[in-house]
Write a structure and sequence with these properties.
It contains four helices and two strands. It is mainly alpha-helical and 154 residues long. Strands 1-2 form a two-stranded antiparallel ribbon. A hairpin with a 2-residue loop joins strand 1 and strand 2.
Length: 154
């Protein structure tokens, strides 16, 4: 035995040695019965059906006209409510600060205009909430329901 060569393999004389795969080895065809496993059938499976494409292209959700209308309706609803409730309060504060003579005028009994306008703040806020709810039910909710039914809001 020389030191430069590797020792002989004990399996080199084994009769059932497998041949080395060539570099040009190609896999067997997929439906060759010789290479099929027991649970596979030799008949080729039908090609999968392609999903049918919609007749008209569906626009992107961000550019959909119903979504645009819904956003506009919500925006308008918020602006009207904020201007009603906060606008009244700001007018009341400005009158209290700059028109003290007007606010001190008596109406009847011990009630003056400033106190009456201050007491009207609660009913004005409640009216703004009622109008918000009514307008939302009549304009915004039907648009949102239609979008939910068509699935465009996904």
């Amino acid at each position: 035995m020389s030191y430069g060569s590797p020792p002989p393999s004990p399996y080199s004389s084994w009769p059932g040695r497998l041949p080395k795969p060539s570099r040009r080895h190609r896999p067997p065809p997929p439906h060759d019965p010789e290479y099929l496993l027991p649970w596979q059938s030799s008949e080729p499976s039908p090609p999968p059906e392609r999903p049918s494409t919609p007749a008209a292209p569906v626009p992107a959700p961000g550019r959909h006209s119903d979504l645009r209308r819904l956003r506009t309706a919500y925006r308008l609803l918020r602006r009207i409510t904020i201007l009603t409730a906060l606008g009244y309060f700001v007018v009341f504060l400005l009158l209290s600060g700059f028109a003290k003579d007007l606010m001190d005028r008596p109406l009847f009994g011990g009630l003056n205009i400033g106190l009456a306008l201050g007491l009207c703040q609660l009913p004005v806020t409640l009216i703004a909430l009622v109008l918000y709810e009514r307008t939302a039910r009549s304009t915004v909710d039907p648009l949102a329901a239609r979008l939910r039914r068509t699935g465009a809001a996904r």
